[in-house]
Amino acid sequence: MSDLKLIVGNKNYSSWSMRPWMAMKAAGIDFTDEVIPFDFLNDNPAIRAVSETGKVPLLVHDGFKVWESLAIIEYAAELFPDRPVWPADRKDRALARAYSMEMATGFRGIRNACPMNLRRPTKAAPVTADMRADIDRIETIWHRSIRKSGGPFLFGAFSAVDAMFAPVINRFEAYVLSQHPETLAYIAAFKAHPAWIAWTADAAEETWIVPEDEA
Ligand SMILES: N[C@@H](CCC(=O)N[C@@H](CS)C(=O)NCC(=O)O)C(=O)O
Fold first, then answer.
1. What is the Å distance from ligand 1's center to 14 Cα?
2. How far apart are CA 131 and CA 107, in angstroms?
3. For the chain, which domains are there?
4. Were 14 and a residue from 9, 115, 162, 190 both cysteine, which residue would form a disulfide, CB within 3.0 to 4.6 Å?
5. pTM of the predicted model as reported, rounded to 2 decimal places
6. Ligand 1 pocket, residues with Cβ under 6 angstroms
7. What is the pLDDT of residues 109-168, one digit of tens each?
8. Any residues with CB less than 8 A from the CB of 150 and at least 6 apart, and which?
């Protein structure tokens, strides 16, 4: 039995940590996790002690370390080829990876203005032009994919691309970024998923506060 551990930041705030954690959990991969709480004031010394980028998430497999959320997801998919990490169909898989890359590299309008904060009481945020463009593109991806697959997730069953959008689910809901019925249906399906329920339950128990993310 190999030793697979995902090191993550505070579950309430760490959007990048949430993505591979949900992707692996939803695919039924057996792993443990370790939370290293953020200490931004002191430049996160405990994270720097284990992670050469100074960032989380970090996957540790029998001592071998993989960083970057998408690289972690790909490593897990290769380690467990029988697990449904990505959609089964090749073209769906290609689209899922393309959308995941868009998420990993873009959408800075909503990422900067609306930090993930799973405990945040719902309160509408003013929508800037950058945020509007992000919201429109995200909803185009979501609605088109679900119309084609039949849902409830982007390619039918939950896969890594849904996990890549997990923090956006919180942002859309907590900052009231859309009331579109198809968006609300996707958010509802997401929030009923056992991996979402498990992660957010852990987040709800945390007592650490990261002031920068309490916008
Ligand atoms: N591109 C990286 C981003 C990782 C990242 O920015 N993680 C944040 C937490 S959500 C972090 O560790 N920040 C610590 C810091 O910047 O000091 C990934 O996909 O994993």
1. 8
2. 8
3. 4-84 (3.40.30.10), 90-197 (1.20.1050)
4. 9
5. 0.98
6. 9, 14-17, 44, 54-57, 68-69, 104
7. 999 999 999 999 999 999 999 999 999 999 999 999 999 999 999 999 999 999 999 999
8. 156
